[in-house]
From TrEMBL:
This is Guanylate cyclase. The chain crosses the membrane at residues 510-532. GO terms for cellular component: plasma membrane. It comes from Clytia hemisphaerica. Keywords: cGMP biosynthesis, Glycoprotein, GTP-binding, Lyase, Membrane, Nucleotide-binding, Receptor, Signal, Transmembrane, Transmembrane helix. It catalyses: GTP = 3',5'-cyclic GMP + diphosphate. The lineage of its organism: Eukaryota, Metazoa, Cnidaria, Hydrozoa, Hydroidolina. It is a single-pass type I membrane protein. GO terms for biological process: intracellular signal transduction; receptor guanylyl cyclase signaling pathway. PROSITE patterns: GUANYLATE_CYCLASE_1, GUANYLATE_CYCLASE_2, PROTEIN_KINASE_DOM.
Length: 1144
């Protein structure tokens, strides 16, 4: 590849040789960057480059250096894609540097690592300065082939000496050298190994660490760290990529390198300083402090032993890196904000009129890197060297002469620290030995970690390096340091004699006996501890809540989801007993809302059974079980059972509220939630519920059903105030009770599991019909309970028909299966009723395995609505863009685009003085005669045809139509956007073009026999221009130049272009291609006097390109003697003469 690069270098220099550019004060700096391959998160390199250019230009203005840096950005990989023969990075850089050098580039910034050597050699061949900001390869350490190349990063060869000094200081001669998978770090590893071996240091382990392979291949990871542990304890890791190093560090700890016997040194050439060495959860900046926090963060939630091991490994890890002090430059946060502004302008994000994905990455806080500071410093090195060359009166276009002034010079980085370029123009780093200074709370997720220097590496005159520590205090807290470079007996016990074989049997017996004894002790301790903890749990009073912890809220506000039917019994938000409606109390307990269920008991006996039941209730944890929180005991006022509060009330409340629309998905989800909750309850220590009702199935904020009012059988007698409840209310609470329990004289307090299934069947009837139990029979609760209790054939059950299920469930299969499930749950024989586990399998089969709940269904509905809304917004946006374009086009027809944009953005336009413009006036000769023979509509059509022709011609020139009044037509060039001295030539060419167009193309439609003749006058001078008025703003011109131009037209003759002395001088001083002749007689102009004027006849190059017929006709038109046409007194001309103003 080097041979190919050299061959093409010679060919490029020979074939593309150009005369050197004339010296000037403008210098073009080209940034070489792989734009085609760049990720969006890396676009801030452009911002740093542009900021550096701006700062250098500002410095030049302040100090009067008279240097202006211009810039462009060149894509170094574009040629790879478009060249099918030599599609290599080296070829791309070679050709690109050659092309840019010929186009006027004075210096290059870059390039990347891969093309560094070839690019530096090519720049030297073209004698162009090149300053790199990322290239750290040792291939360009010598300046014989590239005397114009320098860089703001250190070569990988420079950290060999600090490593040697570290080994020498701690008397280590056995080590391991590791690098990542990148080519540049692998090359640096080879260079370091060769250097160490020359110093007689044994490198026992040398390998590349592949983080991706280690994460996916257990065999590779085991072999890598096994070999590492068994060969070296002093490890040097060449800095690669933060995530790779984090992975290596984590695995190193997992494989035992954090036991205090190992030490790891990270080596890097990146300059570090306090602003990049600190990590804070409030202000995250890149650096090794961030590395430490990310590493320790991986052990959050793990055991204290694992965390301690991770910390020990971090304490025995160091960093060898250049350390920059004296940070006093522009604040990094301010600089990043500036990057955002620059990249907004670079990508035109603010002007784009809509969201653009790449504009999201203009925030530099997303991916900040000190490479951007190195890029800034590279521009600064070239600029300061250029200034020094200029001040010495040396050739600033001679790259070698310019870069010679950078040798052995100290520069100041953007971050404030000083760095030196040596005799070879190489960045000379000052290395320090750094350690991790952990925060006091390093075992928590939020902390601040830093890296601090404990020593520096001094370069001695004998070309050797030595490590100078800050003092003994810098190593405080590091026990057993420095570590031994190998175990006392060697890694494989090769340095210690084998144990005595005669004692093997006795030793083995002693070990076995000791192990058995220890096991027996452990078993005994475990059993004793188990019994103690069980007794402790029973006597634990965590279920008891102090009354002071409960804050009762306003009960009227608490029942926010009340049933519309006052006869219902809801234990979630209201209780109705007889004619008295009792609201459930809502309170605040530990900053959360809770429901308080009052019970009346003067004595509360806590025996073993009661304590066990309370313990079991506290242990229940399921998404469909409402948590039991505890009991408040206060016999003087009222005792309360505390449950978690659900704001949407009970299932009974929801079903009875006709304003709540429930589709089949909602109803199916309710059924599934009840089944899942009961399955969990039946498999718990409580075994059954005993009081399953729709009012005990409450709805939380996510429309999830939670089962409540379970357990607490020892409190049943105190839950109902007997003196306030009539028989109908008492029997209403029994509508969900199974018939076998109603027939018992002493029913079981907790009921049975099969009885819970019957209660579930009654809830299914409520869900299917959305009515209360047995509502279709129109009987009171006493009669209903009497009929259910009686043994009859068929048994008395809710009269539900299939059409009820079909109305509630849209799918016919689902409705039939839900109807059949209800009938199975309400069978007379309890053994024929399905268990809740069987019901769950039945529901899963019915839904084909789908687990869609109400919340997910609501999300799907919202997504559909959102998608529809997005489509509507998109259509409206497109219409708005079309209408905006129409409006802009209309405004730009009334005002110059430049002025119209200012008016839209600022609301007003400041008047402006223009030193030099050229004004054009023309009118139609004989317009009065033509108008007298035409109707008003024919005059309008005639002028419209004429001015349409004029407008089409003007659109091809740098000119602006100011106004038309009647047959008068006014044009100006040189404003609102200045064009130097080109305005006279633009108006002259326009005038000649209009004369030809009128003669050759224009025909008066209603008078085709009459040939149209126009008269033109031109004058150049100064004017003032600005927008006048608010309601109908007009762009106006003020000044004598307007008057003189108008009089040049009025004193001219038909089919001739009458120009002033000023216009003639401008045409002849900047272009000698016009044929201009003086007018025979001088002209007297009002307020000016007698002046010499001229006729503009033609443009010489046009004459040479026209064919003979057109030339004859043109000359005949322009040069034939014509009589003076009497001038007309028109209102527009008189207005201009009086006011010296032109209005647009």
């Amino acid at each position: 590849m080097a041979t190919l690069c050299t061959i093409w270098l010679i060919m490029t220099v020979i074939l593309n040789y150009r005369v050197p550019l004339i010296k000037g004060e403008n210098y073009t700096v080209t940034l070489l960057y792989p734009i085609s391959n760049v990720q969006l998160v890396s676009i801030h390199y452009f911002g740093a480059f542009i900021a550096a250019i701006e700062d250098m230009n500002e410095d030049s203005v302040e100090n009067g250096y008279d240097i202006q840096l211009n810039y462009n950005i060149a894509d170094t990989v574009k040629e790879i894609y478009f060249n099918k023969v030599f599609n290599t990075p080296e070829w791309s850089s070679l050709k690109l540097i050659g092309n840019k050098s010929q186009e006027g580039t004075d210096a290059f910034i870059g390039p990347g690592f891969q093309t560094c050597a070839c690019a530096a050699t090519t720049a030297a061949a073209y004698n162009k300065p090149m300053v790199g900001y990322v290239c750290n390869t040792a291939q360009v350490d010598y300046d014989t082939l590239h005397p114009t190349f320098s860089r703001t990063v250190a070569s990988t060869a420079y950290f060999n000496r600090p490593v040697e000094a570290t080994l020498k200081n701690y008397k280590w001669n056995l080590t391991a050298v590791i690098s990542g998978a990148k080519a540049e770090t692998s090359d640096a590893k080879s260079s370091l190994i060769n250097s160490l071996e020359l110093k007689r240091v044994t490198v026992s382990f040398k390998d590349n660490f592949d983080a991706d392979k280690a994460a996916s291949n257990l065999a590779y990871r085991n072999l890598f760290f096994k070999n590492l542990k068994e060969t070296a304890r002093v490890i040097f890791y060449i800095n690669d990529f933060a995530e790779t190093e984090l992975t290596f560090f984590q695995y190193a700890n997992e494989y035992g390198l954090g036991n205090g016997d190992y030490v790891i040194h990270f080596i890097t050439n990146k300059v570090h300083h306090p602003t990049t060495a600190v990590y804070s959860a409030v202000n995250v900046t890149s650096g090794w402090g961030h590395f430490a926090n990310g590493y320790l963060g991986r052990y959050q939630g793990k055991s204290s032993e694992e965390m301690e091991s991770a910390i020990q490994l971090l304490k025995r890890s160091f960093i060898i890196a250049p350390w920059g002090n004296n940070i006093g430059s522009e604040n990094t946060k301010t600089f990043r904000s500036r990057m955002t502004r620059i990249m907004d302008d670079f990508l035109k994000c603010t002007q784009s009129g809509g969201f653009r994905f790449e504009c999201f990455f203009t925030n530099p806080d997303l991916t900040w890197s000190n490479k951007k500071d190195d890029l800034y410093d590279a521009v600064k090195v070239y600029y300061e060297t250029l200034v020094k060359t200029k001040l010495k009166n040396q050739d600033t276009r001679n790259g070698e002469a310019v870069m010679k002034n950078a040798r052995n010079v100290i520069f100041k980085s953007r971050l404030g620290y000083n760095f030196t370029l040596n005799e070879k123009l190489d960045f000379v780093p000052t290395y320090s030995l750094l350690y991790f200074q952990l925060g006091d709370k390093y075992n928590q997720s939020i902390d601040i970690h830093e890296i601090q220097p404990i020593g520096t590496y001094d370069q001695l005159p004998s070309d050797t390096t030595t490590l100078i520590l800050n003092g003994p205090s810098s190593m405080a807290g590091w026990e057993n340091f420095p570590v031994r470079q190998s175990p006392k007996c060697g890694f494989k016990n090769e340095l210690c004699p084998p144990p005595d074989k005669d004692n093997t049997t006795e030793t083995t017996t002693a070990i076995v006996v000791s192990i058995v004894f220890i096991i027996l002790i452990c078993v005994g301790l475990y059993i004793g501890l188990f019994m103690y903890r069980r007794r402790l749990l029973l006597t634990n009073m965590s279920w008891k809540i102090d009354e002071s912890q409960i804050q009762i809220t306003n009960s009227g506000m608490d029942a926010s989801r009340l049933s519309l039917n006052a006869s219902k019994n809801s234990l979630s938000n209201q209780e109705t007993r007889g004619n008295i409606q009792l609201f459930t109390k809502v309170a605040i307990y530990k900053s959360q809302l809770v429901a308080c269920k009052v019970f009346h008991k003067n004595k509360f006996i806590t025996n073993r059974i009661v304590l066990q039941e309370l313990r079991d209730m506290l242990d229940l944890s399921h998404e469909n079980i409402n948590p039991f929180l505890g009991i408040v005991l206060n016999p003087q006022s009222s005792n309360m059972i505390i449950y978690q509060y659900c704001p949407k009330g009970s299932l009974q409340d929801v079903l009875s509220n006709e304003d709540i629309k429930l589709d089949s998905t909602f109803l199916s989800s309710f059924v599934k939630d009840i089944v899942k909750g009961m399955v969990y309850l039946h498999h718990s220590s409580l075994k059954s519920h005993g009081r399953l009702k729709s009012c005990n199935c409450i709805v939380d904020s996510r429309w999830l059903i939670k089962i409540t009012d379970f357990g607490t059988n020892f409190l049943r007698n105190g839950l109902d105030p007997l003196n306030k409840i009539d028989d109908n209310a008492r029997y209403t609470g029994l509508l969900w009770t199974a018939p076998e329990l109603l027939r018992m004289s002493n029913p079981l307090p907790r009921g049975t599991q099969k009885a819970d299934v019957y209660s579930f069947g009654i809830i299914l009837q409520e869900i299917i019909t959305r009515s209360e139990p047995f509502a279709m029979h129109e009987l009171d609760a006493v009669d209903i309970i009497r009929r259910v209790k009686a043994v009859s054939d068929p048994p008395f059950r809710p009269a539900v028909q299939k059409y009820h299920a079909a109305q509630s469930f849209s799918d016919s299969n689902s409705s039939n299966e839900m109807y059949q499930l209800m009938l199975n749950c309400l069978t007379e024989d309890p053994t024929e009723r399905p268990t809740f586990s069987e019901t769950r399998r039945f529901m899963k089969k019915m839904s084909h395995g789908k687990e869609t709940n109400v919340f997910e269904h609501m999300v799907v509905m919202l997504e559909k609505y959102s998608n529809h809304l997005e489509k509507v917004v998109e259509d409206r946006t497109k219409q708005l863009i079309v209408e905006k374009k129409k409006t802009d086009d209309l405004v730009h027809r009334m005002l110059p685009k430049f002025i119209a944009d200012q008016l839209k953005n600022n609301g007003s336009v400041e008047a402006e003085w223009y030193d030099e413009v050229t004004v054009y006036f023309s009118d139609v000769v004989g317009f009065t005669t033509i108008s007298g023979k035409s109707t008003p509509m024919q005059v309008v059509d005639f002028l419209n045809d004429l001015y349409t022709l004029f407008d089409n011609v003007i659109s091809t020139y740098d000119a602006y139509k100011v106004e038309t009044i009647g047959d008068a037509y006014m044009v100006v060039s040189g404003l609102p956007v200045r064009n130097g001295h080109l305005h006279a030539a633009q108006i002259a060419d326009l005038s000649l073009h209009l004369l030809r167009a009128v003669d050759e193309e224009f025909v008066i439609r209603h008078q085709p026999q009459n040939k149209l003749r126009i008269r033109i006058g031109l004058h150049s001078g100064a004017v003032a221009a600005g927008v006048v008025g608010l309601t109908m703003p007009r762009y106006c011109l003020f000044g004598d130049t307007v008057n003189v131009a108008s009089r040049m037209e009025s004193n001219g003759i038909a089919l001739r272009i009458h120009i002033s002395q000023q216009t003639k001088d401008l045409l002849e001083s900047h272009n000698d291609n016009y044929h201009i002749e003086p007018r025979d007689q001088k002209v007297e102009l009002k307020n000016v006097g007698i002046v010499q004027t001229y006729w503009l006849n033609e443009k010489k190059d046009e004459q040479s390109t026209n064919n003979s017929n057109s030339s004859v006709r043109s000359n005949k038109i322009l040069l034939q003697p014509l009589e003076e046409v009497p001038k007309k007194k028109k209102s527009f001309t008189n207005f201009l003469k009086r006011n010296s103003v032109a209005v647009a």
